[in-house]
Amino acid sequence: MKNKRKMIKGSQPTPTPTPIPIDPNDLAPECIFVEKVYDWVFFANRYENKNFIPDEDCRAAVAAALAAGQRVEVRCSADADDVQSSATILENGNPGRVLIVWTVPVEVTILVNGAPICTFTVRTQFTDEIMLCVPTGITEENIRLRANQVICQTSGAVLMGPDPFGPMIPVRVVLCKDVQVHFPVKLEVLAKFCFPRPNNIPVPNNPIECDLNLLEFPPQCPGLFPVANCECQATAITRNAETTATFAGGTVEVEGTSNLRAEICQECSLGDSTFSYSFTDTEFTGPTPTPTEPDYSFTFTPESFNQPVCGDGSLTVSGVGIRNWEGETDRFAFTLEIFEGLGEGFNLVLTDINTGTVVFDSGDVDAAVAIEECETFADLLDSLDD
Question: How much is the pLDDT for 302?
Fold first, then answer.
């Protein structure tokens, strides 16, 4: 059974508000200054050689240990950050020829009966002649060389060598690397991550397995960022608009006025959404209030927004917010519909989060409204297919 309350007559007219301007954020071609990747090749080399011991005292100690029948072992290590490289363009073209020299320092430790007796560095050098996209205008400064991984192995044994070199150290080095050709350009693009092509000019020999995880990009966070673009955006504003609202699940009908200022998905971003709403119980605040009746006046401020639903001439957004009623605050779910057409305005519904019971329904309230569609990436891609 509804408790019908009539509006106090003689309220003063208020100026008719004008719509809040829309801040558009439609997609448009953009020009960016970037490094364009003209070519990107990932490949590897294996080098095996016997190296003499550069330190004279170490050579003598190793020779003596071998002559005495002691156990002589070799360990080696290398760091990709220590690799040095240089490139020379032999011939520009598509493809053109490029000569690359890699120098890999390898740290070698010799152990006798498990105890290290000396450590020294040997330098291993690789020379590559590869085919790359290096058109006229590309120079050596535009070729980026990077060693991703160095794998050093030894047989674990030291070999006796001829004088004057003495004992020889067998070392096997695998160098995993990539070569990129970059040049600064101004582009108008839609882009995504790309990965290198194989070194297939000419067809490579038996490939050497390297850890391709070294080329991976950090994973994206699609569920967190970036936030999806809104499909539409809207604004609404009204001051002291006559309102017949219902409270307590529709059991109490109250006459009053509404004030609303809403900006939903400004610049087509959900983060640029806000509104403030207040309801004034005009009978209670009139010249002859009824003391036994409560004052239904309150204010409501949203805390969070969900992605809006766009209809034909309407935008509906939901979320959670705070109602302030007679100095007490409560959290309620809200649904705000902004609409235009034969009549334009809004409807605000507040719902108990736990029970789903409607605690307030403004009904349709007149307001100055502006609604526009947002242009998304999907819209742009569909237009490219036409």
Answer: 95
Residue 188 pLDDT > 50, yes or no? yes
Task: Give the position of tokens 């590309």.
Answer: 138
pLDDT in the model for residue 8:
43
Q: Tell me the DSSP string of 310-370.
A: EETTEEEEEEEEEEEETTEEEEEEEEEEEE-SSS-EEEEEEEETTT--EEEE--SEE-EEE
Phi/psi at 66 (nearest 5 deg)?
-65, -40
Q: Does residue 171 register a pLDDT over 50? A: yes
80-88 — which CB contacts under 8 Å span 24+ positions? 80/147, 80/148, 80/149, 80/150, 81/147, 83/147, 83/150, 83/175, 83/177, 85/145, 85/147, 85/177, 86/140, 86/145, 87/140, 87/143, 87/145, 87/179, 88/140
CA angle 286, 321, 277 (to 5 degrees): 35
Q: For the chain, list the strands marked E by DSSP.
A: 32-52, 72-77, 84-91, 93-112, 115-134, 143-153, 168-187, 197-198, 232-247, 252-264, 274-281, 298-305, 309-311, 314-325, 328-339, 345-352, 358-361, 365-366, 368-373
What span, in angstroms and rounded, lies between the C-alpha atoms of 167 and 77? Answer: 20
Helix (H, G, I), strand (E, B) or coil at 73: strand
Q: Is the dihedral of CA 326, 327, 333, 338 positive or negative?
A: positive
Q: How many CA atoms lie within 13 A of 114 on its CB side?
A: 0
Q: Are 132 and 125 in contact (CB under 8 A)?
A: no
Distance CA 252, CA 94 (A): 80
pLDDT at 211: 73
Give one word for 66, left, alpha or beta, with left for phi > 0 and alpha for psi -120 to 50: alpha
> DSSP class of residue 382?
H
The answer to whether the pTM exceeds 0.85 is no
Mean pLDDT for all residues in the chain:
83
Query: Is 108 a residue whose pLDDT tops 80?
Result: yes
Q: Are strands 32-52 and 197-198 parallel, antiparallel or unpaired?
A: parallel
Residues 6+ positions from 325 with CB-CB distance below 8 Å: 297, 298
